[in-house]
Specification:
single chain; 259 residues; alpha/beta; 8 helices
Length: 259
């Protein structure tokens, strides 16, 4: 399918690896030029160069932490008049409800709620003026069904979800859509970190921890960054203009809900 977005430009946050990289790769495959952001410059430069060589698109890199005000300014300046914004940031650490204090919640809110909102506020007005734009926020399955040990993520990402629910309806008439993608377990560093916690808690091997988690997923496996990125690219396409303010699960059926 021709996504109809060749020649457009996308800012993809946290895109040196994992789900963000999957989104960047699939957008590049559709002919989209990229502004790629991550904190680690070495991994970011390596991923960007590979995408340039493989897909022949223009790629600008900006190594900055979007959870900080300084990082947001750097990323917004580098982005310029982008057509597509993919918000993404690593999740806060797991723990129990009694482990977290105010500073922990502020860090989670800065990274997983307030940073995406800052980029939306900075970049969406230009999209509205030009009559077309796409925003995809990578959140989590936990906004539909909370995960006890991910209380910081539950809280911050659900806050972003509420913001998007109202904002998306206000900008859709100007040709801009905002939607959320809700990943379950994918084969990324984040999954390795969560599985590592199970290893420590249960005294089992990493392979055993992965097998245990995969058994809880109806699809029987972890997702891949490529299939996640393909879903992101479709939401950014010309074919998705009537999808507004939605929360789309990509979790292999793991979230046991009716709607």
């Amino acid at each position: 399918m021709d996504l109809g977005i060749a020649g457009k430009t996308a800012l993809v946050c946290a895109s040196s690896k994992g789900l963000g990289l999957g989104c960047a790769e699939n957008l590049a495959a559709a002919g989209v030029n990229l502004v790629m952001n991550a904190r680690g410059v070495e991994a970011l430069e390596a991923s960007a160069e590979r995408i340039r060589q493989e897909y022949g698109v223009n790629v600008t890199v900006i190594a900055a932490d979007v959870a900080t005000a300084e990082g947001q300014v750097q990323v917004i300046e580098a982005a310029g008049e982008v057509d597509i914004l993919v918000n993404n940031a690593g999740g806060p650490p797991p723990g129990m409800w009694s482990d977290w204090d105010r500073d922990d919640f502020i860090k989670a809110l800065d990274a997983n709620m307030l940073a995406p909102i800052a980029l939306i506020k900075a970049l969406v007005p230009g999209m509205m003026d030009r009559g077309w734009g796409r925003v995809v926020n990578i959140t989590s399955q936990s906004v539909r069904a909370p995960i006890g040990v991910l209380g910081l993520s539950n809280s911050a990402r659900t806050g972003l979800t509420g913001y998007v629910a109202g904002t998306s309806r206000q900008v859709a008439g100007k040709g801009v859509t905002i939607n959320n993608l809700l990943p379950g377990i994918h084969a990324t560093d984040r999954a390795d970190a969560l599985d590592g916690g199970v290893v420590n808690a249960k005294g089992i091997t990493l392979d055993e921890a992965r097998s245990e988690r995969a058994a809880t997923i109806p699809a029987g496996r972890y997702g891949t960054r490529s299939e996640f990125g393909a879903a992101c690219a479709f939401l950014c396409s010309q074919h998705a203009g009537f999808i507004v303010g939605q929360n789309i699960l990509l979790d292999g059926g793991a979230t046991n809900i009716t709607m």
